[in-house]
Amino acid sequence: MSFPQPKPQVPQLPRHLLRTIQCNQGAVRAVRFNADGNYLLSCGSDKSLKLSYDNSQLCSCSSDKTVILWDVATGQVARKLRGHAGKVNCVQFNEEATVILSGSIDGTVRCWDTRSRRFEPIQVLDEARDGISSLKVSQHELLTGKDTHVLSCSEDGHVYCWDLVEGSLTLKLPVGKAVVQSLSFHPTETRLLTAMEGRVQVWGAEPEETEGEGEEEEEKA
């Protein structure tokens, strides 16, 4: 007798706010961890271009509702993708540059197959309540049987976690009452950075223990 395969576990999204950093540089438009995760960087202007892993292709987003795939060697437009109902705020390649993800003011994340001749998106994620301002792929190979997810931050003050295999929303993290401008994964730990107005927030999978809490536990023991 055969039994059905168990469903893969939902990824653990960092949902505990560990600290908030006032950057004193106006509105924070983008935030990133460095390569080893020991530092974070913030800046006041958002990036709209992303290079593919081999630097042969470039994708850009535009206020004219389009996503454009460029051939870097020739400097020519390879494909122009239409489907969003409003300004496209952000674009992201998967690691192999076979899929482009785009987030728009229309509240949708759309997935485009760069190898196909079809101009329609292969997937549309539309459960966000407001415009998408930034997005990140959590595991890179999108078109295999892997349990793959993408995170997007929204103008409604939330971070959304989408299951690309099921095409559904799996987790929703309330960040605040303003626009979430940018997000970034820690390279090795279950931590997440979000940028909102003039501050950066650090999120972890578990609450961060303070020195006072540790001393109290020792006294009880």
Question: What can you tell me about this protein's structure?
Answer:
With 221 residues, this protein is mainly β. It has one helix and 18 strands. The strands form five sheets. Strands 1-18-17-16 form a four-stranded antiparallel beta sheet, with no helix packed on it. Strands 4-5-6-7 form a four-stranded antiparallel beta sheet, with no helix packed on it. The chain has a four-stranded antiparallel beta sheet with strand order 8-9-10-11, with no helix packed on it. The protein is globular and about 55 Å long. The chain starts with 15 loop residues before the first strand and ends with a helix. 29% of the residues are buried. Mean pLDDT is 76; it is low at 45-51, 140-147 and 214-218.
What would the keywords be for this entry?
221 residues, mainly beta, 5% helix
